[in-house]
Write a structure and sequence with these properties.
CATH topology of the largest domain: Rossmann fold
Structural class: alpha/beta
Number of strands: 6
Strand order of the largest sheet: 3-2-1-4-5-6
Distance between the termini: 22 Å
Low-confidence stretches: 1-15
Largest sheet: 6 strands, parallel
Length: 251
């Protein structure tokens, strides 16, 4: 237990809330900056001889990745197994008039390997998770697939802190569909009024949690405004360091 982090919560829980659900990328671990850096490094290693500026190819990859993840929708069916990352890189290469499946595969494999080497929790996340672990039921809900996330999250040893990790893509679900939140609550055997969702994406994490009847904490390090007319999150924090106090305020 980390001294000081649990104390503000002690008087609050008393059976009122039993479970905390977390988004993964850009909530507990750096995803955006890590993705940008790794993509440029891989492009420099494997595709510079094609006459493409590594930064430009990295940007094209990021655009392809964003298009893929933003394009996920409930019930749309799962993409072909084994080719998600390769398809992103192939689409990026096609931006420059290169249609090379072998090169796309090499870029994908190297990218996944580098990401696995560099993934780590935000420094503020570890003490908070350690404080909450074994006191409350914890789970992750991410829009990822085992195929794209397994190797990268293995170094995080998620089992240290979390009772379950829900890869929504494997279930043909996607946040903010309330179905994925209901599925996760069933895994932890908790009701919506016993649950809180913590995430950085307002439309997927906050609005999805609200649609499922849960309360939500918005991780908003840049101080972005919420969407116009949206129901506000029950708490807004700049980093995970602020989560214990936010949970106390929600009560």
């Amino acid at each position: 237990m980390v001294k000081g982090l649990c104390d503000p919560l002690t008087h609050w829980w008393d059976g009122m809330l039993r479970a905390i659900f977390f988004d993964l990328d850009d909530t507990l671990v750096d995803d955006t900056i890590s993705t940008e850096r790794c993509a440029e490094l891989v492009a420099r290693e494997l595709a510079a001889d094609r006459g493409i500026a590594p930064a430009e190819l990295a940007k094209a990859y990021l655009d392809a990745a964003i298009a893929f993840w933003e394009g996920l929708s409930p019930g749309a069916g799962q993409p072909p197994k084994g080719g998600i990352r390769r398809a992103m890189w192939r689409r990026a290469l096609q931006t420059f008039g290169i249609d090379d499946s072998a090169l796309a595969g090499a870029l994908a494999r190297r990218y996944d390997a580098i990401r696995a080497e560099r993934v780590e929790y935000f420094p503020d996340a570890v003490p908070v998770l350690a404080a909450l672990h074994n006191r409350y039921r914890l789970a992750i809900i991410t829009n990822g697939f085992t195929e794209t996330h397994e190797a990268r999250v293995a170094p995080l040893e998620l089992g240290r802190f979390f009772d379950h990790v829900v890869m929504a893509g494997d279930l043909d679900m996607v946040k903010p569909d309330p179905a994925v939140f209901h599925y996760a609550m069933r895994l932890l055997e908790v009701a919506a009024d016993e649950s809180v969702m913590v995430g950085d994406r307002f439309n997927r994490d906050v609005e999805g949690a609200h649609a499922a009847g849960m309360r939500a904490v918005w991780v908003n390090p840049h101080g972005d405004p919420p969407p116009a007319g949206a129901r506000p999150a029950e708490a807004v924090i700049a980093s995970m360091r602020d989560l214990p106090q936010a949970l106390e305020r929600i009560a």
